[in-house]
Amino acid sequence: MGRTELDPRAVARAVAAYGFEALRGRRGTGSGAAPAHRLAELRLDGLDADKRTVAKKAVRGLPPGAPPASTATPFDFAMAAQYDWSRNGGQASFQAALEIIGEVFLPLGPDGYLDAAASLLRLTVQVEFDGPDSPFLTASGVEAIALDYIRSDELRRTAGPPDGRAASDEAQAWATWLIGQRRQESRQTSEGYEAVLTFLLLLLRRRPRQGYSISQIVRSLQSLWVGGVHRAFLEPELYPEYHRNRSPEEVSPSTGLPVGDGQIERAMVDLIVVMTEESLFSTNRDDQERAVIAEALDRYRTAVETVRLESVLQVTGAETDRVRERIPTDEDLASACVRLLAGEWAGFDSFAHQFRTAAVAGAVILLEWVSDVAAEFPALLGSAGFAPGDPGFDEVVTFVSVVLGGTTIGESAVPSPADVKRARACVEAAAAGGDWQELATWPTTRRSAPAS
């Protein structure tokens, strides 16, 4: 009788359905990828030499909310720690990133920020290749197998042997719990780096393009990082810059950090630029536009209604067609005036420094600037459409709402809807010359990051 060849797809389904069980094993049976007796035989840091204590210590280390400790294996314990942001190095890495930004980025000019960002990203990539305990491939592989296991529950119920149901339910509980831990760790990591990106874009005087948010940009960057690192492990010949078993030899003279010239970090920096645009605080460099805007601003000091573009063009003698390409309407002219004031705001550096080290103070400085503009140019903000939906207005609301959240910077960069609503009311009040401080209700605990 001829043999029937195995269908690779059927085998893949079986691996998906039972792979996680094989990895974690069953407590007390000596099975799985990390049985207690095998761990005790290994001469590695962090493993107890007495095999009888390995499983006991593992159970004691399980966090609240885990499945019954009586079913835990050393594998379950290890992966629980791997997906814990406070224990796997993720939180420390984020704090280090903030410190580097404070110590290295702030002294640089705007032209050096992107290269410094590439250097910082290079550090996060290179450690995965240089570190002997780099967990990227293992953590990613276990995550994928656990997700497949959860998705294959129905297959096991219909195709699996009846006597294996109890073991399957036990493994299902651990897979579900571990993925919950991984999702929480992913959320913490994302929110931490949303805070880092928010601050970086502030320094770069950029903001997300229409249709994007800080959260979406961070998710895109993370996808690029994960895919890039995985591909670099799979095909090292395509990414030789990461496979030297040491950090890059070339160091930037301006930052003291490794030069970020690798494919992954450069693509991430390019993505940041593509998904963002010049912010309210960017500087206008076109001389003809500048002359038109300066004339309009001079008129706005005493104007009680919108300044007309046509009349300003006549006085300045600027090339009408050229200016109208960038400033086609009266409202665009008013918006350009607001951007010029923001770009040349003498308090911007102070605002940027305060936003990092004492964000409440930074938000106060920003709202005071809006209030000062409203007082000095009474008709300007209204003529510019500085209201909800205007990119410049929404940008200011974003900074204020992050502060009103009241948590430590990086612990959560996602303000609640109530925080956003309150921030919007503060900015509207400041733009109208009202008392925005009564609406703020600043958090009693100042948001802070590590001092530089």
Helix proportion: 55-70%
CATH architecture of the domain at 280-452: Orthogonal Bundle
Number of strands: 2
Distance between the termini: 76 Å
Mean pLDDT: 81
* The level-1 CATH class of the domain at 280-452: Mainly Alpha
What class do helices, strands and sheet pairing give? mainly alpha
Query: What would you call the quaternary organization?
Result: single chain
Number of helices: 21
List the helices and strands and how they pair.
Elements: H1 8-24, H2 36-41, H3 51-60, H4 74-82, H5 90-105, H6 110-130, H7 136-151, H8 153-159, H9 165-204, E1 206-208, H10 214-234, H11 263-274, E2 276-278, H12 287-300, H13 309-316, H14 320-326, H15 330-343, H16 348-357, H17 359-376, H18 380-383, H19 391-404, H20 417-431, H21 437-440
Antiparallel strand pairs: 1-2
Write a brief caption for the model.
By secondary structure, this protein is mostly helical. It has helices at 8-24, 36-41, 51-60, 74-82, 90-105, 110-130, 136-151, 153-159, 165-204, 214-234, 263-274, 287-300, 309-316, 320-326, 330-343, 348-357, 359-376, 380-383, 391-404, 417-431, 437-440, and strands at residues 206-208, 276-278.
Description:
- There is one protein chain.
- This protein is mainly α.
- The chain has a domain at 280-452: Tetracycline Repressor, domain 2, CATH 1.10.357.
- Helices cover 63% and strands 1% of the residues.
- Strands 1-2 form a two-stranded antiparallel sheet.
List key phrases describing it.
mainly alpha, 452 residues, two-stranded antiparallel sheet
